[in-house]
Amino acid sequence: MDNNFFKNLEKKTGVNMKDVFELAGSLQNANFKDEKTVRNVIKRVSQIANKHVSKDMEDKIVQSIVADGKQLDFNTISQMINKK
Question: What is the DSSP letter of 16?
Fold first, then answer.
């Protein structure tokens, strides 16, 4: 994709695209049945999105992903964080 596209996206969202790409890369081989892994991903997404995630919300997201077998991706977590 065009580098200007990502620069414009960074300006509009305040989200560093390098961080997003690093997170996406780390998700490829992650074990999403492992609670610790899922919690680390949630914390990383909340940092990137500059959104606080309460312990209760984190627990709900973890349960949804680990126990219910939901697919984990940046968009899924982002939507859950923004519902609060």
Answer: -
Q: Taking the domains of the chain in order of start, what are their residue ranges? A: 3-82
CB of 32 closer than 8 Å to CB of 65? yes
- 46, 51, 55, 61: CA torsion to nearest 10: -60
In 1-84, DSSP assigns E strands to: none
Q: What angle do CA 29, 32, 33 make, to 5 degrees?
A: 130
Spatial distance between the Cα atoms of 57 and 18, rounded to a whole number of angstroms = 26
Structure-derived torsion over alpha carbons of residues 31, 38, 80, 54, reported in degrees to the nearest 10: 180
pLDDT tens digits, one per residue of 3-52: 788 788 778 778 888 888 888 888 888 888 889 998 998 898 888 888 89
